[in-house]
Amino acid sequence: MRKGKLLALVLAGAMSLSLAACGGSDGGDQNSGGSGGNGGSSSAADSAAEIRLLNGKPEIDDQLQKLAAKYKEETGNTVNVETIGGDTSASDILKGYYQAENMPDIFVIEANQVSTWDGLLVDMTGEDWTKETEYELVDTNMGTIGCPYTIEATALGYNATILEKAGIDPKTLTGPDAYKTAFEILDSKKEELGIDAVVGYCAEVANLQWSSGTHIFAQYLDAGLAQNDTKYIDLLNDGGKYDDARLKNFAKFMELLAQYSDPDLLIDGTYDNQVGRFAHGKYAFITQGSWVDLSESDFKVGFAPYAFENGIDTIIAGAPSYWAVYKDGKVDAAKAFLNWCYTDSAEQILVEDAGLISPDKDCKYTAANKYADSIKEYMDAGKTSGWHTMLKKDGLQNQTGQVFADFAKGTLDVDSFCSTLKQVTESFYAQ
C-alpha cells in the first residue's frame, strides 16, 4: 500500500519527539477516521468543519492567526493555525503526527518531499485557486497536490542607484559580453560610486554551500527555460549527467563573477557580511535571492538574469514550499479555505501584513519586499524559470558547494571545475 512508504520512514527513523507531545495539540480527533475521512466527499457539513493548518514559517505566525480570524469573520468557519519552526524539524513533527493518527488537514511540503507523501495527498486539480496561478505543485501520478502561498526568486540582485550612476541599464544585461562590459565600467568607477567591489559573491563552503550548491547551481539547471521545462534537472537526475556546452558557459560566467567579487568576501565571508555590505551600498550586485532583508537600505533594487549564454532573460521564481491537503482529513473544508486564500481580503493579509509575494497573477497588493516590483515585472512578462534545483538528489548541494569553493579559490580552472563537478555528481548519484 502507498501509505506504507511514509509509515516505513516513520518506523525506521529515530523520532525526535514523543507521541505524548504529538497527541497534545488541539484537534486531537483528526485521526485517519475522523470527519471527512472519505478523502473527498462533498457536503455542507464537511466544508464548514473546523480544520487545522500546520505552519512551518514561525516568522508569519501572527499574520496567519490574523488570516484565520478573518476567515472566521467572513465565513463563520474555524482554522486552527499550529506553528512550528526554528530548531524544530517540520518533517519529524509530521512523521510523529502521522504515527499518532493526529494529522493536520493542511500542512507544508517541499517539492522534493512528494515521494514521502505518495498516496496521502488530495488532488486539487480544478479548484478555483488553480485558475489564478502558474506555480502549483503538480505530480505526474497524484495530480495538483501543492497550493503555493508565496513566491521567492533568485537571480543577480542589483543596486539600481549604482547602475544608474554608472550609466548602465540592467535591461541590457542579456549575455556574458554585456556583463563583462558592465563589470569593467563599474570596476573603473569604484571610488566614484563608493563601492568596495562590483559583485558580492560568497562561495564559503561551511555555512553557505546552500547558496552556491543549491541556488547558484540552480541557474545552470533552469536559467532561460520555461517554467515547466525540466530538461537539465531530468538529465542531472539520470545518474548525474550534464550538458557539457551549457556547463562550460556557466563556469565561465562564474569565473567572471569571482573575478569582480570582493576578495575578502569570496572565500571566507559570511551571509551577514554579504547581505550587510550590499544593503549598505558597497556592492553593485549580489548572488542571493528575494529572501534577503534590505529593509534598512535606501536604494531601489532589482533582479537581472544569470545571462551566461546570450538570450537568457528569465529569473528563477517559484514557491519554496506549498500547502497540501491530507486525504484522510477534512478535505472539503481544507479546500474551501485554500480557495478563500486567493480572495482579496486574504491576499491583503498575506501580502501586506505577512510580506509574502503572491503567486496569484491577479493580486493587486504589493509586498514590502524590495524585490517585489522586479519579480512582478518578470512574472507578468512570463519571464520566470522553474525552481527545479529542489528536485535534485538530497545532499548534492554539499558536494557541489565544495566545487564552487575550490573554483573561487583558484584551485580549479574552468575545465577542471566542469570535470570535477561532473565527477562528484556522478559519484553521488551512484551511491
Regions with little confidence, pLDDT below 50 for 5+ residues: 7-43
- Ends distance: 27 Å
Name the overall outline.
globular
Q: Which strand order does the major sheet show?
A: 2-1-3-12-5-4
* Helical segment count: 18
CA gyration radius, whole angstroms: 23 Å
Q: How many β-strands, per DSSP?
A: 13
Task: Tell me the helix content.
Answer: 40-55%
Beta-strand proportion: 5-15%
| Major pleated sheet | 6 strands, mixed
Structural class: alpha/beta
How much is the average pLDDT?
89
Can I get a quick summary?
The chain has 431 residues and is of the alpha/beta class. It contains 18 helices and 13 strands.
Keywords:
431 residues, alpha/beta, 4-stranded mixed sheet, 13 strands, 12% strand
Write the layout of secondary structure elements.
Blueprint: H1 3-12, H2 19-23, H3 44-47, E1 51-55, H4 61-75, E2 79-83, H5 90-99, E3 106-109, E4 137-139, E5 143-148, E6 152-154, E7 156-159, H6 160-165, H7 176-188, H8 190-193, E8 197-200, H9 205-222, H10 231-237, H11 244-259, H12 263-266, H13 271-279, E9 283-286, E10 301-304, E11 315-318, E12 322-325, H14 331-340, H15 344-353, H16 372-380, E13 384-385, H17 396-409, H18 414-430
Parallel strand pairs: 1-2, 1-3, 8-9, 11-13
Antiparallel strand pairs: 3-12, 4-5, 5-12, 6-11, 7-9, 7-10
Helix pairs in contact: 1-5, 4-15, 9-17, 11-18, 17-18
Polypeptide structure, described:
Helix 4 packs antiparallel against helix 15 (344-353). The two termini are 27 Å apart. The strands form three sheets. Strands 2-1-3-12-5-4 form a six-stranded mixed sheet, covered by helices on one side. Strands 8-9-7-10 form a four-stranded mixed sheet. It has a three-stranded mixed sheet with strand order 6-11-13. The longest helix is centred in the middle third of the chain and has 18 residues, at 205-222. It is 42% helix and 12% strand. The protein has 18 helices and 13 strands. The protein has helices at 3-12, 19-23, 44-47, 61-75, 90-99, 160-165, 176-188, 190-193, 205-222, 231-237, 244-259, 263-266, 271-279, 331-340, 344-353, 372-380, 396-409, 414-430, and strands spanning 51-55, 79-83, 106-109, 137-139, 143-148, 152-154, 156-159, 197-200, 283-286, 301-304, 315-318, 322-325, 384-385. It has 431 residues and is of the alpha/beta class. The model is unreliable at 7-43 (pLDDT under 50).
